[in-house]
């Protein structure tokens, strides 16, 4: 059973900037991961969330989804991002949450099957960034995972 | 005459996460801006630069280019990002630099003309992120500037 504070501690230890941003893993149900970040350390010159922080939260939601999938299956992998796209839809003036989910069980099966056979697989992961439960940005990340 | 330490201080004051990342404005010649960031505060789980930090540096290079253009012309504007795309080409295992440049004098003239007439203009800015002078990532940002 994955303990969320352990995953937050892992992010803070391995990716220093996540600690500066105050990012925490808020929820995980085996399919969808939710990250949370306060506004204050992520403010920009317009007193809303900085675009770099929003993109970073989107990247981390996708990364955390794959990290949790592998952690639960005790697969040792390295996950890297190859492409990141963020659309900023509206200003964020309060704490943010980002969710990323497995698109379909079949897509996950294909991904896990490929990584077992070829030791390397790619997956596109969509993240939604919300503020007060309203969609404020979307992120698409192309990730590559390597088994070792 | 713009003083680079003042621009760095502005970024650190207005966008808190730039201080945590150790970002500095390293050069500006009226056409091209260069930002620099050390590796240590931007490390990931693979001991290379974290994708979120690379994207953020790309966004900030584009933002700083527009900020400097307006600063030199004494135009008061608010600059926001609408879309951000990063392609990660190779791992970054040392300090990074990001450059963003005015594409053509004509594109800049159009942009400045539009913002004077309509108080609002969009511009796409490309940033290149380098490590040891080798291209390691590219960023495209779509920015909107509003005059006030």
CATH-derived topology of chain A: Thiol Ester Dehydrase, Chain A
Largest sheet of chain A: 6 strands, antiparallel
Mean pLDDT of chain A, to the nearest integer, reads 96
Oligomer: homodimer
CATH superfamily of chain A: Hotdog Thioesterase
Tally the beta strands of chain A: 6
Overall spatial form of chain A: globular
Largest interface here, residues on each chain? A-B, 33 and 33 residues
CA-atom Rg of chain A in angstroms: 15 Å
CATH architecture of chain A: Roll
Question: What proportion of the residues of chain A is helical, as a percent range?
Answer: 25-40%
Please give a structural write-up:
Two copies of one chain form a homodimer. Chain A has 148 residues and is an alpha+beta fold. Chain A has one domain: Thiol Ester Dehydrase, Chain A. Chain A is 35% helix and 37% strand. Chain A contains four helices and six strands. Chain A has a six-stranded antiparallel beta sheet with strand order 1-2-4-5-6-3. In chain A, a hairpin with a 3-residue loop joins strand 1 and strand 2. Strand 3 of chain A pairs antiparallel with strand 3 of chain B.
């Amino acid at each position: 059973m994955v303990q969320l504070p352990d995953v937050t501690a892992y992010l803070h230890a391995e990716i220093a900037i996540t600690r500066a941003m105050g990012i925490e893993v808020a929820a995980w149900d085996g399919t969808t991961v939710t990250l949370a970040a306060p506004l204050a350390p992520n403010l920009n010159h317009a007193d809303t969330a900085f675009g770099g922080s929003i993109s970073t939260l989107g990247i981390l939601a996708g990364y955390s989804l794959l990290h949790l999938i592998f952690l639960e299956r005790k697969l040792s992998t390295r996950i890297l991002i190859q492409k990141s796209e963020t659309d900023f839809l509206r200003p964020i003036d309060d704490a943010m949450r980002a969710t990323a989910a497995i698109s379909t069980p079949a897509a996950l099966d294909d991904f896990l099957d490929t990584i077992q056979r070829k030791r390397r697989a790619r997956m596109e992961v969509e993240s939604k960034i919300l503020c007060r439960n309203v969609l404020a940005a979307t992120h698409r990340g192309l990730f590559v995972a390597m088994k070792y």
